[in-house]
Amino acid sequence: MKITECLDHFSEDLAGTSIAVPEKTTLFRTATSVLGMAQAYESDGRTFLASGDTVNALASFWYGLGWLHFGCTYGLLVTPGRSPCPFASPFETLPVAYRKRLVEKTERYDRLLNLARSSVVPASAAETAAYDVAERILCIADAYSRAGEWVMKEGRWEDALSCFSYGHGWLDAAVTSGLFRIVAEHDLFTV
Q1: pTM (two decimals)
Q2: Other C-beta atoms lying within 10 Å of the C-beta of residue 166
Q3: For 92-134, what is each residue's pLDDT tens digit?
Q4: Rounded CA gap, 99 and 55, in Å?
Q5: Is the dihedral of CA 153, 159, 161, 164 positive or negative?
Q6: What is the 8-class DSSP label of residue 179?
Q7: Do the Cβ atoms of 129 and 190 come closer than 8 Å?
């Protein structure tokens, strides 16, 4: 997938996204925050892309997609979901001029996702539905961490950065939504 296609799909889904919970509920504030963060990362990615910073644009789009997909899965948001799965095909290879920066950022995001993952615990008791959702989010973060490490070993740095950014976006959105308690490295999260 080309980065401009990723942007187009992300923007299309965001444009059709609505908040799924009633306005006067406690979850409305959370839904507004999650949608706002997804929109902010899409906007940041556009700015990076326009300035020629393709590496940060890539990371920003995927981080924002993590926020958006978390919001939909958690029932806070509804999106038309017409875009194809962004992981359905390998990401375009960025020009060689970006390679050093891409490798550095990808390796750093690998470490950050693993550090973030080990810095949270479910906020609710084990017998609750919220605990089950938190455990699912941890599985998602772990799955994208493993996928990123696998494609990174193959030299597919763009796909690896996408995986790490996406997994961290899910985790950050879940922390902001109150599903986790931060036990270390508070600065890795938006709250």
Answers
A1: 0.95
A2: 28
A3: 888 899 999 999 999 999 999 999 999 999 999 999 999 999 9
A4: 9
A5: negative
A6: S
A7: no
